[in-house]
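Case study B.
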Amino acid sequence: MTQARFDLVVIGGGAAGEKGAAQAAYFGKRVAVIERRSEPGGATVHTGTLPSKTLREAALFLSGHRQRDLYGVSVEISRDLSVARLIHRKDAVRRLETERMRVNLDRHHVELVYGVARLADATTVEVTDSDGGVRLFAADAILIATGSHPFRPPGIPFDDPDVHDSDSILEIDRLPASLAILGGGVIGCEYASTFAALGTEVHLFERRTPLLSFLDAEIVERMVEGMTALGVRFHLGVREETVTRHDGRLVCALTSGDELEAEKVLVTSGRVGNTEGLGLEAAGVQVDDRGRIVVDEEFRTAAPSVYAAGDVIGSPGLASTSMEQARVAVCRAFGFAYKQAVSELLPFAVYTIPEISSVGLSAQEATDRGIETVVGRAPFDDNARGAIIGDREGLTKLVFDRATRRLVGVQCVGERASELVHVGHAVLTLSGTVETFIEMIFNYPSLAETYKYAAYDALAELGPAEG
Ligand SMILES: Cc1cc2nc3c(=O)[nH]c(=O)nc-3n(C[C@H](O)[C@H](O)[C@H](O)COP(=O)(O)OP(=O)(O)OC[C@H]3O[C@@H](n4cnc5c(N)ncnc54)[C@H](O)[C@@H]3O)c2cc1C
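Model:
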């Protein structure tokens, strides 16, 4: 059996794998990436982030959602439109992104190897290619970046062609008249908005309340109002007991005692780490009960030469964070005097309609940490750009520490919230205060200007700075 030698072998060519590999190669290490699919990209490119966002954009464009209220335009979308056709743009985006990844790996002289990898031991990776050929790759360090797949709760009939998880929903051939979404986490809320914008009657079930509890309650409330106006029906505190087919009808029996009939069911119950068959026991790597690899703050597993990053280690399960974790893991593995930790300021974006985004602390989190806060708000309907685009739900909310006047958190809801949040993110990173926004001049008309007025709102309570 042939054996190649590398400084680093990365298992998985997704968001984390690509960035970890490039980081090590940038500092002169010899690196191989092993990918089991025929293309790099992982969930970000093929089943998750980009396809779902492309579908969302198609829904917004085709439904005329953004213009509906302004110009009285109402568009009905044909049920026969397949989701695949709706997201044909996804293929162009996918091609662009996989090509960019290949070029990036090539430019860094990273060897991209196609095959299924498993650990033979803590410093050797065994790769089986599609013809059954097996090669061994010895490495000083191994980075596991194998991602995750949708969790399929027991008792749900996934063999029914109308019962889907977040991977198979992208392959449906026509838009359903009605859709029951079981699970109101980020993915459930995003798909609820998208399908509602496409004209599907959407019912969203979430057993835990409040919804998206890790985000600011006021911002989530506005999101819920916007989604309700779009037609999403929320069933909170309720979950499915069974999903069955009766006389050809798909029926969800609920814990409330009610029954709901839907043309399709989408189950979004979280994700499970891709660790099966990886040979983790052979290398001494530990996993938890959802298959997530257990790591320390350096992203090192129980086996000292093996690191793990991205979805395979669990929360927060974002492409943005996965990439950064992998960079840090590699810097730690080789002792580079570079990225030693993932920033504590993790931005979150939820691409619902309206979208929401946050970074830093919510007012509640700040209070829980003993910080006395002052909150400034600027709704988009008081903003010239907001009025032009007709955004009624939009809000920029800033949380300041009363004692230091420093910004401690930013929450946005509304058009382009995921972009807008980074204005505040930069100020937060640079330890800016309420005065930072008061001094800044913003484009007019722009949504970014809401930062200045949210700061003035806070200033009204804070009073002028001393000295
Ligand atoms: C519907 C949906 C929407 C999302 N939206 C967002 C969003 O808006 N923003 C955001 O930041 N994140 C989003 N995410 C999350 C994001 O997709 C993931 O966090 C990200 O893909 C994780 O990257 P990763 O590299 O850890 O794993 P992946 O991208 O899953 O990559 C893992 C790779 O490893 C390969 N692999 C697995 N096992 C083996 C093996 N044994 N041998 C060789 N190769 C192997 C896989 O084929 C895959 O290519 C979304 C996810 C979903 C499902």
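The CA atoms of residues 70 and 390 lie 6 Å apart. The remaining cases will be described in the next quarterly update.
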